[in-house]
Amino acid sequence: MTMKAVLPGQGKPFRTAAEGFRGVTAWFEREGGLTSGGIVRFHVSERRA
Questions:
Q1: How many CA atoms lie within 13 A of 45 on its CB side?
Q2: How confident is the model at residue 49 (pLDDT cuts 50, 70, 90)?
Q3: Most-buried pick from 5, 10, 20, 33 (CB within 10 A)?
């Protein structure tokens, strides 16, 4: 599920409101919980200067 699918039209306002803040925005591609010792794969996209 994507933000676009769950909250149509909210992506751009979210991006604007988050400008200048640090943090992690993430999504999960599968249902289920995270467990200690579980394997998680991260993808970090290029950042604009």
A1: 5
A2: low
A3: 10
36/43: higher pLDDT? 36
Residue 3, both tokens: 């933000």
pTM over 0.70: no
* Residue of 3, 6, 27 lying closest to 15 (CA atoms): 3
Angle at 30 between CA 4 and CA 11, to 5 degrees: 15
27 within 8 A of 2, measured Cβ to Cβ:
yes
- Domain around 29: 1-49
The tokens describing 35, both together, are 């467990």
